[in-house]
Amino acid sequence: MKILVPVKRVIDYNVKPRVKADGTGVDLANVKMSMNPFDEIAVEEAIRLKEKGVATEVIAVSVGPAKAQETLRTALAMGADRAILVQTDDEVEPLAVAKILKAIADEEQPGLVILGKQAIDDDSNQTGQMLAALLGRPQGTFASEVTVEGDSVIVKREVDGGLETVKLALPAIVTTDLRLNEPRYASLPNIMKAKSKPLATKAPADYGVDTAPRVKTLKVSEPPVRVAGVKVADVDALVAKIKELGIS
Ligand code: AMP
User: Fold this and answer.
1) Cβ(212)–Cβ(93) under 8 Å?
2) Where in this chain does the record put each Electron transfer flavoprotein alpha/beta-subunit N-terminal domain (predicted)?
3) Angle, to 10 degrees, between the axis of helix 37-51 and the axis of helix 68-78?
């Protein structure tokens, strides 16, 4: 069974994003970029399934600029077998990514596609669900445990107030939540080895997908600056303060 793992190059989670002066988006000039953290978890899960003998090949895919090659090399250094870069400098929305992934899944016929539950730059939480719909395949989203049993996959899902366990017929789509696993660090020898693993470069047009945006961002703004707190002497003063500020 092949596993397809889509990985997105995003602003590093440790970087505090700065909004561009004209409010059109986040300033990405000279900012550290990394693999979306949920996608690292997806790569780790796919590699573990290969190590268990469940999967035979792990294919990482990224849709993005030439620099997204670095993200794919990270996936290869972690243990993915080969990679596909669908190169574009456009900002690609989840629907277009899902259409490209559908075309790749039609070609590669993976038993599982494991995506992150969301990309931390756009916070869309849409691509996996759209891909499942386009492929007409079952989906197990927000996975905190994934077990392949014969021709099914059992997914423990993180839902409000607890865990839900679902059984999906393969081929299926899974999206990862934070608690699924702790991704490994790539060792230096594996980083070196990854340089010679196959990486194919394609374009969205190769899959017949038009990446023109359907959504227009009207404005991006910084969150309001937090005002300093005050110390109160006792509970009565606290209640008075709450009333004064109209907090309910
Ligand atoms: P989103 O729907 O944008 O929050 O993204 C959810 C997941 O879809 C991500 O965690 C990735 O696994 C995948 N994904 C989204 N955009 C891309 C992209 N440009 N290239 C590869 N994978 C992507």
Assistant:
1) no
2) 23-211
3) 30
Report DSSP state, residue 181: -
Coil, helix or strand at residue 157: strand
In the chain, the N- to C-terminal Cα span, in Å, equals: 55
C-beta of residue 62 within 8 angstroms of C-beta of residue 21: no
Structural domain count, the chain: 1
pLDDT digits (tens, 9 = 90+) for 149-199: 999 999 999 999 899 999 999 999 999 999 999 999 999 999 999 999 999
Indicate which residue's Cα is closest to atom 17 of ligand 1: 8
Task: State the pairing for strand pair 152-159/162-169.
Answer: antiparallel
Q: How far is the CA of 22 from the centre of ligand 1 (A)?
A: 26
- pTM beyond 0.85, yes or no: yes
The two three-digit tokens of residue 156, written as one number: 């423990």
Which of these, 100, 99, 3, lies nearest to 47 by C-alpha position? 3
Q: Does residue 91's CB lie within 6 angstroms of at least one atom of ligand 1?
A: no
Any ligand 1 atom below 6 A from CB of 37: no
Which two structure tokens, joined as six digits, stand for 113?
Answer: 């596609």
For residue 230, give the CATH number of its domain: 3.40.50.620
Q: Which residues contact 224 (CB under 8 A, 6 or more apart)?
A: none
